[in-house]
Amino acid sequence: MVEVVQAFDRGRIAELPTDDAPALEAKLAAARARFQDRAGWLQPHERMAVLHRLAGLVETRRETFAMLIAREGGKPYSDALVETDRAIDGIRNAADLLRSRGGVEIPMGLTPASENRRAWTIKEPIGVVAAISAFNHPLNLIVHQVAPAIATGCPVIVKPAMATPLCCVELVKLVHDAGMPEGWVQTLLPESRDLSESFVTDARVAFLSFIGSAAVGWRLRSILAPGTRCALEHGGVAPVIVDRSADLDAIIEPIAKGGYYHAGQVCVSVQRIYVHAEIKQAFVDRFAARVGQLRVGDPTRADTEVGPLITPKESERVESWIAEAVAGGARRIGGERFSTTTLQPAILVEPPKDAKVSTHEIFGPVTCVYGYDEIDEAIGAANSLSVAFQASIFTRELDVALDAAERLDASAVMVNDHSAFRTDWMPFAGRRESGYGVGGIPYTAREMTAEKMIVFKR
């Protein structure tokens, strides 16, 4: 059994049964049987109908899901409502994909050898999908893995984070209530880590969708069965550049939101802030004033802005990273302990360049501020790590914006917005150690698709 507790006060929410090896085998066999029975594949209109009914069912439980997100994951209730709304829209987005999904014609007759032929491609489901998700968006991340699988016609077995399984279990129940036959969408709560590895490496798995740490993701990729494709979404150490021309009145709020949303437990959360030396002190003063006003506490309260970290161990880790930076010369603003699981938001001014807070993903309510004199210096520092995901620059100079947008090593660059901006239909992918493949609902659906060419000779 797995005990699920509230992130904030560790109070018990529920206890769920785990899956043993025979249960995993039964689920893999059921998924594989569904895929092999081509005559039993659901038609596009049937899959669309399931997705639309699912969106409606989640919508009727909007507040229930939001409270569940707040309780098991610690995300403030107001942000959990936004996550639920995004999940509902994402399910509908997956259904809409089927209206435009199709192959292309391949030109023939371009050489004598290709005369009297017509060729085209069709899109088919890639096969059984193994999905492993993360705790920080316990509903929407599951939607990003399950909804594209339904849309493309792939059987999917989804393993949620063991700290936050309830949203996943409830969503999959609703998938079945929406009319999805058994065997197409299943959950997995493995009783051991070894069983998780057996799940991922099984030869019946055609595609692995993984959201989590780089260390785990790259290791799993290295042991996949031959032929298994994958997409990995890891984290970053997101850089934000504040140009000397930036409007301080306009940038404080978005940077604070990007840095402390969900207590910084976001893979593209604002972490490294490079501010031009001419405005650095003014920025720090205004930023510290705003961050000091953030309401910290119980995430189930409607007015809470910053909730807990997922476990007490994570709070201890973040505290130790802050202490290391301070010992190395950083000036600390805030960061006091609020409770066993919760820290006050912290700002570290000029931490050492080699400190953990400067080189590793914090995944906590901490941002770091560094001064710079020339934009080249800031871009160089932003690009200096082995991770690269989303980045941003705040400026009122068009040439600075365009130059930085091209030179920043990131999969997406936000201009005059924080690095954590995301919509669920845009491409979302880490570069280098930050990931492999492309996320975002339409792009995940593409990753779960196998293209087949048909050549017809007259």
Walkthrough of the structure:
This is Aldehyde dehydrogenase. The protein has 458 residues and is an alpha/beta fold. Helix content is 39%, strand content 20%. The protein has helices at 21-36, 44-60, 62-73, 77-97, 140-152, 166-177, 193-201, 214-222, 248-260, 280-292, 312-327, 356-359, 375-382, 398-407, 441-447; strands at residues 2-5, 12-16, 105-106, 117-125, 128-132, 156-159, 185-187, 205-211, 229-233, 239-242, 272-276, 331-334, 346-349, 366-372, 387-388, 390-394, 412-415, 431-432, 435-436, 449-457. Helix 2 crosses helix 6 (166-177).
Q: Determine the strand fraction and express it as a percent band.
A: 15-25%
Tell me the helix content: 25-40%
Number of domains: 2
Overall, the morphology is globular
| Overall pLDDT level | 96
The major pleated sheet works out as: 7 strands, mixed
Instruction: Write out the strand line-up for the largest beta sheet, numbering strands in chain order.
Output: 12-13-14-11-10-16-17
Cα(first) to Cα(last) distance is 62 Å
- CATH level 1 name of the largest domain: Alpha Beta
Family: Belongs to the aldehyde dehydrogenase family.
Keywords: Oxidoreductase
Organism: Inquilinus limosus
Protein name: Aldehyde dehydrogenase
